[in-house]
From TrEMBL:
InterPro entries noted in UniProt: 6-PGluconate_DH-like_C_sf (IPR008927), 6PGD_dom2 (IPR013328), Mannitol_DH (IPR000669), Mannitol_DH/Oxidoreductase (IPR050988), Mannitol_DH_C (IPR013118), Mannitol_DH_N (IPR013131), NAD(P)-bd_dom_sf (IPR036291)
Record gene name: mtlK
Every Mannitol dehydrogenase N-terminal domain range: 28-276
Domain Mannitol dehydrogenase C-terminal: 285-474
Family matches, as Pfam families: Mannitol_dh (PF01232), Mannitol_dh_C (PF08125)
SUPFAM superfamilies noted in UniProt: 6-phosphogluconate dehydrogenase C-terminal domain-like, NAD(P)-binding Rossmann-fold domains
Taxonomy, superkingdom: Bacteria
Protein name listed in UniProt: Mannitol 2-dehydrogenase
Keywords, in A-Z order: Oxidoreductase
Length: 488
């Protein structure tokens, strides 16, 4: 049956659903970037709170700032903003319909509807999932990229911005001028110190057009850091059919693993839901948790995906089923990454590797290598290279980490080892491909991408290892290079 408020009561008994009256929900959150991860993670926690009779004044209003967001808005509006979540576990599959989102703002040039809604006093949190590369970070410095064309536009046209951050600045100006007060900006993307990154984007952009407003935002708004974790594959025809198998016609269902984690700094200037009652964790040590996750899980993805792409392996679980790739994952994680990760309460780094190994190998999760490899130009500097720097400083091994970078360079050449073409898979694909072509004969040309590698190109142990591995990959193939690493 078509998913809607009217059909909720007629869903099959096996499908969990809202026990709250959605018509009585009132908004408290605007979320920008209504992708699968948000609906399987933050929205799920809020749904569970609402099912306990709590947080019913914290409903979500969805939003987007790009023209392509309109497609998702239409799909969700047609089904009363409900989402089917399908949990994929080797022991069985289950479905749950969640309903904490009650509206999705129209997508318009200048973001007028978004600015107006965030400016209203009932909105106390503005949260975002806009991808790791969406925060206008200068890769060379880690600071704010004030020269990006979008930012230049927003600084010159603060009342009709292109970006989510420009819209937040415009809304906060209205709130300040009306005496309404601030809201909390909450980043839910996989970034170290993600709240600090969001603060940097909003305050830096405001400073370009209105320094006084920037000071007000910095003094009054809060931007809590958080660590988020749940493997959520992209939705395609297979996922839509899975929902239909439960008797639900959902145009945008979400599949996810049987694991979620959300660790949050308790720093909310205008209140918050009690997410900790349904499994989230508030702590002063978000950095420790996020470092463990980004260095082991997110970097672990990058350890395997480029070799998998070169060998024509299409899924993460398929990569873990490949003996050489699985062995590469295990050795790099345990010998080159774990020594530089500080334990957090309840989970040592080796235990966390074991957990991630099981999660990646889950055959019920059809998470594609292509999705995980996307935007390597942000993911390698964010997830992998910090460990390289720590290892070099400690005099620790970097051979496997250099091999991972060599596999990325070879993948960006744009062909698999069977000769088939790898379609562009990075916002900076043309630049990466040009560097990869030079690196085929001069490997160090890849490391001269200073915006990514900085001074690592000048670190002999890392650069020499990279040179060796890329030459071996081109001469003998990535599996032979992995074999040589495993024997070392």
């Amino acid at each position: 049956m078509n998913l809607s408020d009217k059909t909720l009561a007629r869903l099959p008994d096996a499908v969990m659903r809202p026990t709250y009256d959605r018509a009585r929900l009132t908004p408290g959150i605007v979320h920008i970037g209504l992708g699968n991860f948000h609906r399987a993670h933050q929205a799920w926690y809020l749904h569970r709170l609402m099912n306990e009779g709590l947080a019913r004044d914290w409903a979500i209003i969805g939003a987007g700032v790009r023209a392509y967001d309109e497609d998702m808005r239409r799909k969700l509006a047609a089904q009363d903003y409900l989402t089917t979540l399908i949990e994929l576990d080797p022991s069985g599959t289950s479905a749950e319909v969640i309903g904490p989102m009650i509206d999705y703002l129209s997508i318009e040039a200048g973001n007028g509807p978004l600015i107006a809604r965030m400016a209203r006093p009932d909105i106390r949190i503005v949260s975002l999932t806009v991808t790791e590369g969406g925060y206008y970070i200068d890769p060379a410095t880690g600071g704010f990229d004030a020269h990006h064309p979008d930012i230049v536009h927003d600084a010159a046209h603060p009342d009709s911005p292109r970006t989510a951050f420009g819209a937040m600045v415009a809304a906060l100006k209205r709130r300040r001028d009306a005496g309404i007060g601030p809201f909390t900006g909450m980043c839910c993307d996989n970034l170290q110190h993600n709240g600090d990154v969001l603060r940097q984007a909003v305050v830096s952009l405001a400073r370009l057009s209105d320094p006084e407003l920037a000071g007000w935002i910095e003094a009054n708004c809060s931007f809590p850091n958080a660590m988020v974790d749940c493997i959520v594959p992209a939705t395609g025809p297979k996922e839509i059919e899975l929902a239909r198998g439960f008797g639900i016609d959902d145009a945008a269902p979400v599949t996810h693993e049987n694991f979620r984690q959300w660790v949050i700094e308790d720093n909310f200037c205008a209140g918050r839901p009690d997410w900790d009652r349904v499994g989230a964790q508030f702590t002063d040590n978000v950095h420790g948790y996020e470092t463990q996750k980004l260095r082991i899980l997110n970097a672990g993805h990058q350890v395997i995906v480029n070799a998998a792409e070169l060998l024509g392996v299409e899924t993460i679980s398929g990569a873990m089923a490949h003996p050489s790739i699985h062995a590469l994952f295990g050795k790099v994680e345990r010998e080159e990454i774990v020594p530089h990760v500080v334990p957090v309460p309840g989970m040592t780094p080796p235990q966390y590797v074991d957990l991630i190994e099981r999660r990646f190998a889950n055959p019920a999760i059809v998470d594609t290598v292509r999705r995980v490899a996307f935007d390597g130009s942000s993911r390698h500097p964010g997830f992998v290279l910090p460990t390289v720097r720590d290892a070099l400083a400690a005099g620790a091994p970097v051979e496997g980490l250099a091999l991972v970078q060599a596999a990325w360079a070879r993948m960006c050449f744009g062909t698999r080892e069977d000769g088939s073409t790898i379609a562009p898979n990075d916002p900076f694909w043309d630049d990466l491909q040009a560097a990869a072509r030079k690196a085929k004969t001069t490997p160090r040309a890849w490391l001269e991408q200073r915006q990514t590698y900085g001074d690592l190109a000048d670190a002999p142990r890392f650069a020499d290892a990279f040179d060796k591995w890329l030459k071996m990959i081109w001469a003998k193939g990535v599996e032979a290079a992995i074999g040589a690493y495993l024997k070392a």
